[in-house]
Amino acid sequence: MTKNFNGYLYAISAIFFWSFNVIYSKYLANTFTPFEISFVRWSIPALLFLPFTFKSIIIYRKTFLKHWFIILILTLTGLGFQNTFVYYAGHTANAVDMALINATSPIFLIIFSAIFLHNKIRFPQILGILIAVFGVVIVILDGNLKNIRNFTLSAGDWWMLFSAILFAGYGIAQKMLPPDVPAIPAFSLMICISALMFLPLAAYDFTTHIPAKITKTDILILLILGVFNSGLAYIAWNKALAAIGTVKTGISYYLTPIFSTIEAYFLLNEHIYANQIYGILLVLAGISFSNYKKKKLSQPQNYKQNRK
């Protein structure tokens, strides 16, 4: 019970921080390019983590070289381009739509989990996912299913869909990481690789893109992205994956649009409509149903002895 509680607590903490990503992408869209944002957000935790993990990275260097491919996959999917796609989406998609499309990630996570990890998917989980997806659809279609005929995806929506797929891949790759790979030093190494990977891309954008006036709010957002969204949130998410598994952790990700919708209302002045409330309630119901597990009736000890 304690392990499950801690696992969900870690997952919700990570989701809460990440739910601000769509908000931050809207704030920074006119000031920085996606590559510039990605470079800064990974450089900050690299500078914070490296002094404490450099020695461990050197000690485990042979282990990291042995599993270089899975470490590279983790870097590219979860840390690298998954977030960059969110910043591209911020140029053309609104925050609520971005959050809702991002909520499709658990679907891909469960599919990948069944394919690559051979995990069994229980019927309550399937039904819960369908209920949660229906809640997301209700919000996207403004509460009227007839609107599906006029529904189109913008370029930003596609970027968010690609981001959702990549993040699902990150969750699977994290579970495939061998136990002999130390978690914190490996994560620190991936952060450093991400920062170095985006350095030439950000440098090119900096020389060709004239940024708008940088405000104190922009600097604060970049610091929050670096410390909380890029550092603490990923550690919490990895702990959740280890504690409650890919399926339950992935289903919890449906809370993202709920957090993001509320944040968009207060921070971006986007309205919350009745259909969004109904959709949120369906999402919560789907998560609850997916995590329902029927308890087995335990037989009395004397009954077991009589059966022998």
Give a topology summary.
Layout: H1 2-18, H2 21-28, H3 34-59, H4 61-66, H5 68-89, H6 95-102, H7 105-116, H8 123-140, H9 155-176, H10 183-208, H11 216-252, H12 256-267, H13 274-290, H14 301-307
The separation of the N and C termini measures 32 Å
Parts with pLDDT < 50 across at least 5 consecutive residues: none
The fraction of residues assigned to DSSP E strands is under 5%
Q: What Rg do the Cα atoms give?
A: 21 Å
The main sheet comes to: none
Q: Kindly state the number of beta strands.
A: 0
Order of helices and strands: HHHHHHHHHHHHHH
Structural class: mainly alpha
Helix content: over 70%
The outline comes out as globular
Residue-averaged pLDDT, rounded?
Answer: 82
What would you say about this model in short?
This protein is mainly α and 308 residues long. Helix content is 77%, strand content 0%. It starts with a helix and ends with a helix.
Description of the molecule:
The chain is mainly α. The chain is 77% helix and 0% strand. The protein has 14 helices and no strands. It has helices at 2-18, 21-28, 34-59, 61-66, 68-89, 95-102, 105-116, 123-140, 155-176, 183-208, 216-252, 256-267, 274-290, 301-307. α3 runs antiparallel to α5 and α5 (68-89) runs antiparallel to α9. The longest helix has 37 residues, at 216-252. The radius of gyration is 21 Å and the shape is globular. The model has no long low-confidence stretch (mean pLDDT 82).
